[in-house]
Amino acid sequence: MEHQDSERVSLSSLHYGSSGEEFLNFSGFRSDNGDGEFSVNLVEIDESLLIDSSEVYIGRMIGGGGRSAVYEGLYDSRSVAVKIMQPCGESMTNQDYKERFRREVMLLSRATHQNIVKFVGASVKPVMTIVTELMTHGNLHKHLSSIRPAKLDLKLSIGYTLDIARAMEYLHANNIIHRDLKPSNLLLTEDKQHLKLADFGLSREEVSTEMTGEIGTYRWMAPELCSIEPCPRGTRTRYDHKVDVYSFSLILWELLTNKTPFHGRDPILATFDTCRNIRPSVDSIPEEFIPLLESCWAQDPSRRPEFTEITGFLSGVLDKLTSEEEVEPAEEADEEEPEDIEQAMIVAAPKEAKHKKSNFLSRVRGCFCGRTRKVAK
């Protein structure tokens, strides 16, 4: 890290203040001055996941939101990211808030995949903390904004979408719904060629009963998660892992256009558009990706494909692009018939998954034959 030791603060020296006025250092926390700590009921976490907070040092803030703040840190002589749960009013003593933290630790510690940030450990004393590997090259949202209005190279865009799809395929195979899939939760690797999924604060295990509705970030929220009619906070509704597929579709659209979905619309109004089956324009989208987009953002969740199907499709497209780059046509070679684009988009049957597959692949096979489409305004 760039900071000197004198600029780092030991995690063990922080604790929650008893009121908002006592939030002095580190946006919601104050150093222990010996006058005693604000007492909170500890969260039960598997001891094998806990680390000693006295060995964690934090530096500058690098991100965060209403529920947490993320800092550059040092643990066991290596750079890490330190996520500290932000106290906010009654949240300091709210059991639901603590349960959300426990769930995030449990799910992230179980998720071991090359496209998911690595869990290092957690601490519940003196503050609720999650430590992960440090990703120093920012998130996808900032990266796209920095090059706008230019677009990403198509091959790189597909590579990014494959990273996301593979991470989500892994989570869904392990019965985990992310529920907040969006560009700011996708972190770039050092070479900026790959992405890793982060922030499991809203994730949960999928259940067949009702789950909390209107959860996630409005602009990327699936229609079944929200309602045009006002509803009480915490209202529960039925939905499944396909909410992540919808969110993925808007990220794919953003990667191909480098535009923000529903740009210029208030986030809540964008959600109303989603509920009314209004989608971003596909006019500038490469033709072969339109069936994938329209399948993933289908209003009916059962019509959305599984991530096993999505990764199969994208792998086929990427392989085709790569092979075209590697082949240098000879001037005297016999001219061959162009490859049938329909056949080019047909990929091998995806590996078995626990979820029922959609008819996505069959729709892709027929998408280039006399196809008409309606473009949303």
Automatic annotation (TrEMBL):
Residues 56-314 form the Protein kinase domain. InterPro entries: Kinase-like_dom_sf, Prot_kinase_dom, Ser-Thr/Tyr_kinase_cat_dom, Ser/Thr_kinase_AS, Ser/Thr_Kinases-Pseudokinases. PROSITE patterns: PROTEIN_KINASE_DOM, PROTEIN_KINASE_ST. Coiled coil: none annotated. This is Protein kinase domain-containing protein.
